[in-house]
Every structure is written in structure tokens, then in C-alpha cells.
Write a structure and sequence with these properties.
The protein is α+β, with helices and mostly antiparallel strands. 21% of the residues lie in helices and 42% in strands. It contains four helices and ten strands. A hairpin with a 3-residue loop joins strand 1 and strand 2. The protein starts with a strand and ends with a helix.
């Protein structure tokens, strides 16, 4: 099992150390000025960095989005969730028999009914970030839903059969 250790670096920022299942060690230093340093260590020499990359704030956010699945979701993953305390992001692929197909986000009253929000819609050739209430739900689209586990579950149920 991988382990993540956080350490405050007074006057610098914060260090995150990830010990991967394969034995590699990754250290990420988030500087107070927004820079991020990523260091990779091999299990054979855990004290000597194999490589290092420095990213500015914008680059780091883009890389975080890529790693987190905002740019591409592996085909093998129909549904993925990432827990952040009480908040969950879940990628949900709209099934061809879902009752929500052809309806707008506003018509479904998703946020009002469930408390969850659809923050992105990923289609085969299109990505819609922060879709509005007039966005139509289409079969095969992948929705990025955010909320508590209970809210996300209610949202999925509403999309599938109209009930929360």
C-alpha cells in the first residue's frame, strides 16, 4: 500500500512524500510562491534523486488535472471516485437507457434535488467544463459529478431513473 507523508517546511512551504507500491519514492515540494518541485527516487538509493521537475502554479494545476483524469479517463474505468474529506468527485458514464437522456441539467433539478453538481461533461469529441442548466444529457457522455457520497449517489439515481 502506498503511503503519503506530509511535512511543513517553514519559510518554504510543504513537502509531500509518496512511497509507491513498487518501492519508488516521489517527493513533491509545494513552495509558498506557487512553484512545485517533483523529485523521483529509486528504491535502490532512496537518498539520491533520479530526476526533478519544477512547475509553476499553472503547469502544476494542469498536470494535476491530467493525473486526476480531467483530460483523459482510461477506458477500463467506467466510474472512478476520489475522496477528499467529505467531498467526492465521480466520473459517471450515462447509460443508454437512463431516464435523463435528452433532458437538461436544469429540467432535472440536479443541484436542487440532490445537492450534487455536474462540473464537467466529457463526450467523444467535446469537453464541457462547468455546464449550464441548459446543457442536455446525452447517452454515452461521461459526467464529472461533485458532492458528498450521499449527494453523488442521489444524483446518479436521479439520472438513471428520475428518483433521488
Amino acid at each position: 500500500m502506498s503511503l503519503i507523508k506530509e511535512t511543513d517546511l517553514p519559510g518554504i512551504g510543504r513537502k509531500f512524500q509518496i512511497n509507491a507500491r513498487n518501492g519508488d519514492k516521489l517527493v513533491i515540494v509545494v513552495h509558498d510562491d506557487g512553484r512545485r518541485e517533483i523529485h523521483h527516487f529509486d528504491e535502490d538509493d532512496p537518498e539520491e534523486s533520479i530526476s526533478m521537475v519544477t512547475l509553476d502554479d499553472t503547469e502544476a494545476r494542469r498536470v494535476g488535472g491530467i493525473i486526476g483524469g480531467m483530460a483523459y479517463i482510461p477506458k477500463a474505468l467506467e466510474s472512478v471516485d476520489i475522496a477528499l474529506d467529505n467531498m467526492v468527485f465521480e466520473w459517471y458514464k450515462v447509460d443508454s437507457n437512463a431516464i435523463a437522456i435528452g433532458k437538461t441539467i436544469g429540467e432535472l433539478h440536479i443541484r436542487q434535488s440532490t445537492g450534487a453538481a455536474i462540473i464537467a461533461i466529457i463526450k467523444k469529441d467535446d469537453k464541457i467544463v462547468n455546464p449550464g442548466p441548459n446543457q442536455i444529457i446525452e447517452a454515452g457522455a461521461t459526467l464529472v459529478v461533485i458532492g458528498s457520497r450521499k449527494q453523488v449517489k442521489a444524483c446518479k439515481q436521479l439520472l438513471i431513473d428520475g428518483k433521488k
